[in-house]
Design a protein that fits this description.
Structural class: alpha+beta
Largest sheet: 6 strands, mixed, barrel
Radius of gyration: 24 Å
Number of helices: 4
Strand content: 25-35%
Number of strands: 13
Order of helices and strands: EHEEHEEEEHEEEEEEH
Mean pLDDT: 89
Helix content: 10-25%
Shape: globular
Low-confidence stretches: none
Distance between the termini: 80 Å
Length: 221
């Protein structure tokens, strides 16, 4: 059964910091929706409803229906969500309207497959390091994937997967690789690091080697 990703909102007339603070005290979230060849609209959402819905990560990577006071639903993506630095509170939300036939740029989560079966972990005692947990892509709304999957099964210790090595769905591009020479932006997404003890021994050896060199130089003087 298909999930209908939607938020209910009401129009917001007030502006300014004091107005936003009052809304937050009432457990409301000030928000804005923009783009799509239409005017910017200020909205208010219910904090409790939003917190419950965003437990489903699909809300971060699907085209959403924004229902505003009975009007025709507006199709949009969640462009930003600002949280309180120390409290479990959402301070503000930004939505960007989408238009069929026009490409959009959006972050989608990365799912790492076969982490427990990874060669470098299972046989070498290594640790998987997630350099990225989401990725910015460019595609049409109809091609928007829920997530990007990366299989780490065959990664040995010291191996890594770069952006250019990711297998993408059809008609989906990685935003970072569209800027000039893709190799200049070919970041590491995931890697397998050596066991901690092995790494510590390597570090100690490097320090010891440096001390020996200093001693040799002192003796030569």
């Amino acid at each position: 059964m298909a999930v209908n990703y939607e938020f209910n909102a009401v129009k917001r007339e007030g502006k300014g910091t004091s107005h936003s603070r009052r809304l937050r005290r009432e457990m409301k979230i000030p928000a804005v929706i923009y783009g799509g060849h239409a005017d910017v609209e200020m909205l208010t959402l219910d904090h409790q409803e939003v917190e419950k819905k965003i437990l489903d990560e699909g809300y971060y990577s699907h085209v959403l229906s924004i229902n505003v006071e009975g009007e025709k639903p507006q199709q949009a993506i969640m462009k930003a969500m600002h949280r309180h630095p120390s409290k479990a509170r959402i301070l503000h939300m930004d939505f960007m309207r989408v238009t069929a036939g026009e490409k959009l740029k959006v972050n989608v989560p990365i799912h790492f497959a076969n982490e427990e079966k990874c060669v470098g972990v299972k046989t070498g005692g290594g640790t998987i390091l997630h350099n990225m947990t989401e990725i910015e892509i460019i595609c049409l709304p109809s091609n928007l994937p829920e997530f990007i999957e990366i299989d780490v099964l065959n990664l040995a210790i010291g191996d890594s997967i770069h952006l250019t090595e990711i297998s993408l769905p059809e008609n989906v591009e990685i935003a970072a690789l569209t800027h000039g020479d893709e190799h200049d932006h070919d970041q590491i997404v995931v890697s397998v690091t050596p066991p901690r003890i092995e790494q510590e021994l390597d570090d100690e050896s490097a320090v010891s080697s440096g001390d020996d060199q200093e001693t040799d130089q002192g003796d030569s003087d």
